[in-house]
Write a structure and sequence with these properties.
The complex is a heterodimer of chains A (289) and B (278). Chain A is mainly beta. Chain A has two helices and 22 strands. Chain A has an eleven-stranded mixed β-sheet, with no helix packed on it. A ten-stranded mixed β-sheet of chain A has the order 1-4-8-3-10-12-14-16-22-18, with no helix packed on it. In chain A, a hairpin with a 4-residue loop joins strand 19 and strand 20. Chain B is mostly beta strands and 278 residues long. In chain B, a hairpin with a 3-residue loop joins strand 6 and strand 7. Classes of the chains: A mainly beta (289), B mainly beta (278). Chains A and B meet through strand 5, helix 2, strand 17 and strand 18 of A and strand 5, strand 17, strand 18 and strand 20 of B.
């Protein structure tokens, strides 16, 4: 009896500090946190999709991908999957018997140095490789994604607040946004790609006019950005090893050099600052169709 | 006389300014020498051949326009090299070691290595350039490769070898696997490791023992592979944390046709594909 009581008390103490959830949905009301920054710190998994919607809750859903292995590739056509039989025999229990709970936890608010609501999520679980996150459309959102698999993806759409994405995903896609975007990709995958499209920057606040509305810094990725054809901007672009292609800027327009690898061009007479840099990839900046 | 001197000087200036498109070096005629080649930021084809000279040459590749660039202007970023060249430097050349460092601005090089000249070859090829590829073929002796590129292909080599890559894909085909003499060395003669996918074609009648495998990924094969367990002498019988008191310990591997040549394959995040040679 004494042991049962001790165990119960231990479990109750543990729960508030480290709220584990079973695979499924995590829901948190953001009504009281309106105007605050929301940060998602995600470790593990293969893909993360972030979507803005008209509700008030933060919804995190681990998508059950059992039966659709992430590593099923065209190269495996005609071959048998012998992982469970042979690799399991050598090193580990058969894959289906691995049992780990994904973890979601909120750090205590008093420990946060800035006024930001942070949600951490980490897992290493073969059957739950994809994560779906829904946030109120106007959320000021930061997403940090540390992926562990080749070909990992992160996407964000339908957001009107400021959006900050950083991480090492191979493929990053952002579309249907109307707020500023700061994106830093450290993915060193040469096949990686960042795609930005369907930007609506009709209402740029006066206090943002001299700050970059788009700031992108990538390592190995190609960068493909579509912007409205009538966008007035000062574009700073640079690629240490890649090339820069555009239909917004005439080939005859001489850029103004800032450093060895960064140059500024004016688009439609100049306007908001846009920064796009990549180390090894190409940059494609074109008119939105 | 004045004109001759002027023309002579002009001719010399022109020779110096011209892009160097190849480099040729005759190693010492001693077979005790090891060769090390280090390359940076280029796709490189390493090829063994029957000649005597070590040759580095440019491979001409047509300029390709990416599909995404269709209809767009190319804006000059001023990072294009002013002049293409091959820069080779012999860092060391004595009776035991020839150390060659290859640099330059060309994106694709071929390095021809005389097969009968060296005791062993060490290759260090690093390129983070998009679509960078490293290939290695027709090397008949022992070699050790460390490579960073998008893809690496190894074919028609005999080994023994150790290949360690940071690539999206490592592909081995047409390897001249052989049962090498037991020199009392406690490691496999064929060691293949990568951080991503490893794709190896094996003859269906090869007798091999495969150790390790994918750490995070999966193993795919159409070969008749079976679990294989042997008992080996415990190297640390007095270690309380390592099979204490046991004279023999179990070692679990994968066998092809009952086991034979030791091949160690490991990958951190990728899959391993073991294919039957057609």
């Amino acid at each position: 009896m004494k042991h049962i009581l001790i165990l119960t008390v231990c479990l109750l103490c543990f729960k508030p500090a480290f709220a584990q959830v079973t695979p499924g949905k995590y829901v948190k009301s953001l009504k009281e946190k309106q105007g605050k920054s929301i940060a998602l710190v995600i470790k593990g998994g293969h893909s993360v999709s972030v979507e803005g919607y008209d509700g008030d809750d933060l919804i995190v859903e681990l998508v059950d991908t059992a039966g659709t292995p992430k590593n099923l590739t065209p190269e495996a056509a005609g071959l048998k999957d012998l992982t469970a039989d042979l690799i399991g025999f050598m090193f580990r229990a058969p894959v289906k018997e691995i049992s780990m709970q994904p973890k979601i936890w909120e750090p205590a608010e008093k420990n946060t140095l800035i006024d930001k609501f942070t949600l951490n999520l980490s897992w290493s679980f073969p059957d739950y490789q994809n994560l779906l996150v829904k946030v109120p459309r106007s959320t000021i959102l930061s997403v940090y994604f540390s992926a562990t698999s080749v070909g990992s993806k992160i996407s964000a759409k339908n957001l009107s607040g400021e959006l900050n994405i950083s991480g090492n995903a191979s493929f990053i896609t952002v579309n249907h946004i109307s707020g500023p975007l700061i994106l830093q990709s450290s993915g060193a995958n040469a096949l990686g790609k960042v795609t930005i499209s369907d930007i609506d920057w009709q209402n740029i606040p006066a206090n943002r006019k001299n700050r970059p509305f788009l700031f992108m810094s990538c390592a190995g990725d190609d960068v493909d950005v579509s912007v409205p054809a009538d966008l007035k901007a000062n574009v700073t672009a640079g690629s240490t090893h890649g090339a820069f292609y555009s239909d917004l800027i005439p080939a005859t327009q001489d850029p103004k050099a800032t450093t060895n690898h960064n140059f500024i061009w004016t688009v439609n007479g100049g306007g908001i600052p846009i920064y796009i840099t990549t180390t090894y990839g190409n940059i494609y900046l074109h008119k939105q169709k | 006389m004045k004109r001759i001197i002027i023309f002579g000087l002009l001719g010399l200036s022109f020779t110096a300014a011209r892009a160097q498109e190849s480099f040729k070096f005759n190693p010492m005629a001693v077979k005790t020498q090891y060769l090390r080649i280090t390359t940076d930021d280029a796709s490189v084809d390493f090829e063994g051949y029957d000649g005597d000279a070590l040759i580095v040459e440019r491979v001409k590749t047509p300029e390709s326009v990416p599909a995404l660039a269709k209809g767009l202007n190319r804006l000059l970023l001023h990072n294009e090299p002013v002049r293409d060249s091959i820069g080779c430097k012999i860092l060391k050349n004595d009776s035991t070691f020839l150390d060659l460092w290859v640099r330059g601005t060309y994106k694709h090089l071929r390095i021809r290595i005389p097969n009968h000249r060296f005791s062993g070859i060490i290759i260090q090829a690093y390129s983070s350039m998009p679509q960078a590829a490293i290939s290695l073929k027709n090397i008949t002796g022992e070699f050790n490769v460390t490579a960073t590129a998008e893809i690496m292909r190894v074919s028609h080599v005999a080994g023994p070898f150790a290949i360690s890559t940071n690539t999206d894909k490592l592909i081995l085909t047409d390897i001249l696997w052989q049962q090498l003499p037991d020199k009392g060395v406690n490691h496999p003669y064929y060691s293949i490791s990568s951080n991503n996918d490893v794709d190896i074609t094996l003859p269906p009648d090869l007798k091999a023992t495969i150790s390790n495998g994918p750490r995070e990924g999966r193993l795919y094969s159409d070969l008749d592979l079976t679990p294989h367990q042997t008992n080996v002498k415990n190297p640390l019988p007095n270690n309380p944390k390592f099979y204490p008191g046991q004279e023999y310990i179990p070692v679990k591997n994968i066998a092809l046709n009952g086991g034979g040549i030791n091949i160690d394959i490991s990958t951190a995040q990728g899959n391993v594909y073991l294919r039957k040679a057609k």
